[in-house]
Amino acid sequence: MPLHKWATNSAELRELWEKNGFSIETSSNSIGQNVINYKVHGISWNNDRDIFYFDIETLLSFISKGTDTKRFLLQVAGRIFDPLGLIAPYVIRLKVLIQNVWEMGLLWDQEMPQIVKKPFKERCHELKDLHLVSIPRFYDFTDSNVVDVQLHSFSDSSKKVYGTVIYFRVVRTDLTISTSFVTSKSRVAPLKTHKDVKVDDVVLVEGSSKSKLLWDLGTIQETFQGRDGHVRACVVKTKKGLFRKPVQLIYPFELNE
């Protein structure tokens, strides 16, 4: 099968492809720059500056025709594709709003109350500035002036959200320090901050598989409380033996309810 839609940030290589009849990707850029707009794993790539950025014109058009309902809020959030977490600080605030409307028990097409509608409109207004966010694709620490390269991970949390970011820290011979974004992840904090488990409860123990059908079934043999009085760890008996597990990996089975 012949490959097509080749793309590169090298002018020399692009010229060589054209001479040899390769099918080269060509499309106009929606934000008006005089460069070709490529899509790499769903993310816009400016091959002239070699940066990733967000093309939000289609989303802005969609929002202009929307309503203030739970359904529309989820549709907006679902149209933002950010696998690397480039705009995680923006996306996580939409996720907080989604959690809020779920907690309120709103119907799909019920108008959201002002306490949610106001911040949602603010998030929609901020969308027009997302195209200003750009992340270099190339990690520039291959030159001879580099004396140290470190991969850092920083995490933080609040009562509402938690997240982490991974980045390179590069030191050069002139003692200048630069950082390069790698990826980030963010999550909304669960509404229920602890699990009510007790001895003899039947539980599922989270395993490496994503399918709960493959997780081990067990019973609580002993519980360990934290300083706040909530259970933080358990000794669980499964067919494989006794294991001490943090409560985050324990899921009470429906038989207990």
From TrEMBL:
Cross-referenced Pfam families: Peptidase_A17
InterPro entries assigned to the protein according to its UniProt record, in alphabetical order: Retrotrans_Pao (IPR008042)
Domain of life: Eukaryota
Name by which UniProt lists this protein: Integrase catalytic domain-containing protein
